[in-house]
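JOB MANIFEST
job_type = single_chain_structure
chain_count = 1
residues = 460
[input]
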Amino acid sequence: MRFGRQCVNRGAAFALTASLACLLLSGCSGDPEDAAIREAGGDPDEWNDPGGRWHEGGWKEATAEGGTELTAIQRAAFDRLRSIGYLSGSTPAPTDVGVVVYESAHTYDGLNFYTSGDFPGAILMDMTGRTIHKWHLKYVDAWKEHPGTPLPRSNKTAGYWRRARLLENGDVLAIFEGLGIIKVDLASDLVWSNLNGAHHDLDVADDGSIYVLTREPKIVPRVHPELPILEDAITVLDPDGNELRRISVLEAFENSEYAGILEGMKESGDVFHTNTVEILDGTLEGRLPEFREGNLLLCLRELDVIAVVDPVEEEVVWALTANWKAPHQPTVLPNGNLLLFDNKGYRGMSRVVEFDPETLEPVWLYQGDPPNSFFSRECGSNQRLPNGNTLITESDRGKAFEVTPQGNVVWKYFNPAQGGDEGEFIATLFEVVRLEPDFPLDWMRVAPGGGAPSAPARGN
């Protein structure tokens, strides 16, 4: 039975306040293993990535719990789950690209860090679209020193960095979607790599520990006796990339008073699609004790749920679902509200909503006018800037833009890179992050090539 769109708090169910709705006016044939590869967008006879040819790798032979050998259909299902990823581009490229709107008197100026669907790397650019620095490392180069490393069956997941985090010394943590996580230095040299099924998002604790979402196809008999699920986990790494612990998202729900949410879970496949992990700083702890410092904020797209996990007890301590659809990137704001990218909740289109997590009252929103002028079926992100503006990434359309509290667009950027077999699409823009005003940039002076230009003034 599908779990209703309700607020769930401390085990009680409440109908989401109606004020938000009022304020806002979504048969195979042939070898099953080959079919799974084709469904993932690949060719069973071709193993290519953007930089060359793949050789058929050695996916470790998977088994069900208890060591039972998998059937051909089950193996195909495992491969299909492993190959889940995103297209490099899906929207026709616009005529004008780069920065097309820049009202400097109203923006919060700073450097912008982003990842793009056209290459495995990240870019740091200024407000005019000028590239300040670029990082780049292919999947094959990240794991070439690991003999026997399994290679992906679809270049959708190996051809880009899904998410990246710029560290204060110029190093970058980056995720190859569903495959693993790497760390590179400012010269793009590999520091370490971990082929742990990392996907979507990561956060870094004050002690340098890395919290990253990971996933693994697995047959869990209590969910389905024969078909696999893609089981999500929160995996904790030390600063050198070594795994310290792993928290199952499924078990975190099962071991909590929010287990009823799982009634809406599919029986197989990508049952959660967890896309966000944020280490809480305690901003909300005085009002909602579940949001204490060190707890983890998650977003589960397939259940339309945001939740808080206590990593010590390994259980969900707070959860909420509302009239949003396929959400991404919930984040706690300094004022104690939550900001969320709602992909399909506004007449099937996208919107960004700020709301009070205690009263559930909407505080601010941005939506397209007309509705179809703002839409990202996949991905998407939002960042509240110190001057009150909001930076929004409309991923599928390769666009990022900054809006004022009144909803006026004062900065807009279209990805100049193209994707698709013939470059007919604008490359997906996974996330654009505006650096904080106190972010260290001394490393730029020793960047390869004699150093980068000085950063523009920030904080307008």
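[summary]
Helices lie at 19-24, 32-39, 72-82, 139-142, 155-158, 249-254.
The two ends are 51 Å apart (CA to CA).
exit_status = 0
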